Amino acid sequence: MKVDFLLYCSVKVQRVHYKLKEMGSSEKVGDNFSNL
Fold first, then answer.
1. What DSSP character marks residue 1?
2. SS3 assignment, position 36
3. Sign of the CA dihedral running 6, 19, 22, 34
4. Among 3-7, 10-14, 23-27, where is mean pLDDT lowest?
5. Measuring CA to CA, how many Å separate 17 from each of 9, 22, 32, 33?
6. Dihedral of CA 18/24/30/32: which sign?
7. What would you report as the CA-atom Rg of the chain, rounded to the nearest whole angstrom?
């Protein structure tokens, strides 16, 4: 049960990290265009 909980937490963290990564990359693209 404890292993399942840790696995569940790690999956949630990965999803949040992926979403933040997507948001960050889109923000960087916007900054690059504004710099041009």
1. -
2. coil
3. negative
4. 23-27
5. 12, 9, 22, 24
6. negative
7. 16
Residue 12: count other Cβ atoms within 10 Å of its Cβ.
10
- Separation of alpha carbons 4 and 7, rounded Å: 5
- Tens-digit pLDDT profile for residues 16-28: 888 878 877 766 6
Coil/strand/helix, residue 23: helix
Residue 36 has pLDDT above 60, yes or no: no
